[in-house]
Please model this.
Amino acid sequence: MKKILTLCLAMLVLGSFCFATAEAEEYPSKNINLTVPYGAGGTTDLTARSITNTMGKELGVTINVVNTPGAGGSAGTLNVLNSPVDGYTMLANGMLCISTMPVNGFTDKTYKDWDVWIATYAPNVVVVPKDSPFNTIKDLINAIRKNPGQITAGTAGIGSGGHFGAEVIKAVAGADYKHITYAGGGPAFTATLAGEVQFCPQLLAEYKDAIISGDVKALCTLSTEDIELAPGVVVPSILNSYPEAAPLLPMGEVTAILIPKGLEEEKLQKLDKAFEVATKDPAFIEFCDQKSFTVMPMGREESQKFLDDFASRACYILWDAGAAKVDPAQFGITRR
Amino acid sequence: MDKKTKDFWFSCFLALFSLFAVISGYQIVHEASLPPYNIDSFVLSPGLLPVVLGYVLLFCSVILWIQSVRSELSIGESVRNHIHETKNWLESLKGNENVIYTLGGILIVALYTFVLLANFSFVVSSLIFLIALMLFLRSTNLWKIVIISVVTIALLVLLFQVCFNTVLP
Amino acid sequence: MAFEYLFDAILTVSQPLNIMILFLSTAAGLLMGMLPGLSATMAIALLTGLTYNFPTQSALISLLGVYVGAISGGCQSAILLNIPGTPASAATALDGFPMARRGEGGLAIFLATTSSFLGTFLSVIFVLTLTPVLTQFALKFASWEFFLLSIFGIMICGSITARGNALKGWISGILGLMVAQIGMDIVDTFPRYSYGNVNLMSSIQLIPVMIGLFGFPEIVKSFVKKEENRTVGLTRFEPKKGFRLIGKNIVAIIRSAAIGVGVGIIPGVGEDTGGWLSYWASKQNSKDKESFGKGNPLGIISAESGNNSCIGGAIIPVLSLAVPGSAPAAVLLAAFLMHGYRPGPLLMTESPSFVYNVCIYLAFASFAMWAIALLISHGTVRLLALKKKILMPIIYTLCVIGAYLIHYNMFDVKVMFVFGMVGILITKLDIPAAPFLLGVILGPMADSNLRRGLRLSNGSMLPMLQRPICIFFLLVILFMIFQQTGLIDLIKRKGKKDGDK
Model:
């Protein structure tokens, strides 16, 4: 008995020394994993899938999309942060999540610790059930002002695109709403259809078809310009009615591909090129058009500049709403 | 071990666990009432379900405990009876070779899960694990074990890495 | 019009290339379903990447084939090893494994596969005929309904277990609910029982728990000095007897299919629950309740037709609302979108043929599944004759892969081991494991919907009594409490005594 046990343990130890030696080859030499920290079918997931398909072809490998939902996108993001920076683990995430993770107390790494390639922008849109008494954004804002804390807003959760949209509405109205959170954009959408919540400020892409078909009413978008969804179906910008919202706009989700800083410049340049080709791919552009995403490709430097402004806005919206755990100033994010 | 004796011990542990659930539930209620959550109302707190479930579990464990001692004459006597029976059961385990096999097997599985996989690639650690475990269980002779292990790992790699295009640990 | 589309779809699917793709992908789905830990969700997700560059119709065929295959494949490992291949087929193991031990493994697989086929097929008919009506039904489910549905599911815990002590079933179910409390809660994103660990914050995954609870005890059973010799007489398929049993229980199959479709339609509740509900319904309606859990063929038939009919049910809201009815359907929806379809309210005007294509492909996939499953089961039943000491270590490495692949995270593998220990403990203590799993499945739903409902009503429970579906659920739940605690028997007995007087 004992002999066998010793033999087993010896085997375990011996075998431990058998390393498969890694060969140095030109990057990329194997398939790349791209983590999407949300479930399949969401805005981030779809954008990531359609862009990485072309990127993979350009790089000559397959990019596997891995969905790791949990903890509002933080779990998957932290997993990527903790894995080795070898260029084979990438992340696709919304910038709202990335820029507010430090103030939510998940990590002390800010957007400055990532190499970021911004791909698309998807604006928020405020929708109400089709039998709602609100017909314009003014109706809604007036109702919130009259009944502070009583009008229900359905969103995909704290820190989601919808939550930021609702905070913009709150800032415009100067009065609070009642936040009802769902497990994601899908359930929030069903709740709006069923009339369980009074308004829903999620991303346009999730509602586009339902707005066109008239199953929900769109009151306004939080983009700076009006958006035409289909001939004759125009969603007005909130600026038309409330120009004072301008400093908070445009609000919406910006989706990007990210890698933690530390990858060799040579490899980064390869990714730069693949990204550039992918964002010009007609299939990708058509896909974005169909979903009403604005394609706004930005290289690494440009993205950082964009994020300086964007992160400050997002972090201070949360901080002012009392929903952040840590003061953004601690991370050198200043109010603009 | 007798069924009642099992119930007896289980209900004891369950009672302890449910106390933990209740206390930790109240802790959650307290933490959630602080900023940035600021949820003052108990019914809206994330601690609601842990507290409620904890109480229900406590109730269930009390009933189970009563069921486990009811048939005896007095409570004290039946508790002593249960303890006595457990001692006998533990005695009977001592000489039992199957227990050693089971515990040894679990130990190897644990080593594989926590030590080997954390340090080495899937292929290496699984190979070691398969050979070690089958040797330990004396499943068959050494050569067959090695062949079976190598073939299994090769098949798994083929299936997952080549066919399904996934990355193994 | 409709017939034209149907005919077109049949033409498309019967092209040789597509037939080949259909069979290949259904076989792949069956295989993934059979392997413990690889769920239908994962199977579709893996394939979505692979089929990205396929022609659209072929991609659709292969995705639906994998879906049907994966949901059905789980029954084989459930029956032969008592380790459900996917959470959906956990209910099948309750009666399937005892049958296999009796030496009727072949018959059990035949029944499971045939009822899977029938379940899928019936659900396709539902999709074709009732999509608009059923979509409205899905929208009737708001927070309170979801909450009561999950409570109803947990009450079932008391009666799905074999040896009758309802109390232990409930305890096990509540323990499962407690496990589901771990992690960031959906309503307030408050991290419960996480102790600062991000992996715990993203909550415990269902699949590692399932493998741990069901697989681990079976694996450890083989860790003995001398294997007990139970060479079960290898298992004829007895299709004649099988068909007779199916024919006899056709009512149960239709009932299970209807339940499955209903469960499938409701967003967020899917295959994992469907099997349990239809199993419970059959047990309730059976005269011979005692034989359930001891190898009653009806248990297998209803569980499998129930979980497979969820497929059609889950696809209904995908098509009509672009809201997935279950987790695999969510990935399927993503795949549809990737291939340029826009399921949702505009689907019928934009691409009216799509619904018919999906239905026909599903129907063909269920045929293919039936044929392939029966074919490969001739091989898989031989597993029974294999030496457990060789088989079980291999199964464990498979489980490790399955747990790892969920999120490409080692943490889930460790979770699996921990729940393995829990599984061994509770089986040794005669506590049923199935309710525990059901608790973990339904936990997040119960918790978040209860508190969402309370928040909507400012903390009042009253809305529960004002909604028709809620009242229905409340009555059923009350009935179950009385039944399981034996109160109903008491009343009946009393009534009889009074009558005698």
Chain B touches chain A at residues 35-36, 38, 100, 104, 108, 111, 116, 119-121, 123-125, 127-128, 131-133, 135-136, 138, 165-167 (CB under 8 Å). Residues 3-94 of chain B form one domain.
